[in-house]
């Protein structure tokens, strides 16, 4: 049974951002090149994917070992990365890995949308410790995040289908996280208006 300890912030950041930055660095190093491995020729993109998938598996396993838990979204992301990344490597086709963010965002949108219909605050279960709000605040944030994820899925499809491979890598590595950050900042008033009182009771 792994020890259940809180990770230091820099360790958490390294485990979450490290695999993505390694993918970016690998792609930039080998883009435009053909890499031969085990008698198979891979493009720089597919080779970077081949590096990224096991690195993410190791980083996720380390995080589980250190904390004794993983968020449902982390597990879903890992499964989709392994499936779509594995297909790109196996079939030597980068399109599957480029589709992966679309599938992830559509999955998140579907789960959050269903939680709204079922009147379940699943987002609150995941984020309540970091962001204490009343029930109405979580409903509003869930709706907004559902629409955000649908928009991100559509944006990913447009970028990978109409732009260069390098443009997609920049978009995936820097563009998507920036959009998520700006979204969270744009909802600052929502967090303030629906913040719980110091007694932590939810009156919603």
From TrEMBL:
Pfam families: IspA. Belongs to the YciB family. It comes from Paracoccus homiensis. Plays a role in cell envelope biogenesis, maintenance of cell envelope integrity and membrane homeostasis. It is a multi-pass membrane protein. It comes from the Bacteria. The keyword Membrane applies. This is Inner membrane-spanning protein YciB. Its main location: membrane. The chain crosses the membrane at residues 12-30, 42-65, 71-91, 103-122, 142-160, 167-186. One of its GO terms (cellular component) is plasma membrane. It is found in: Cell inner membrane.
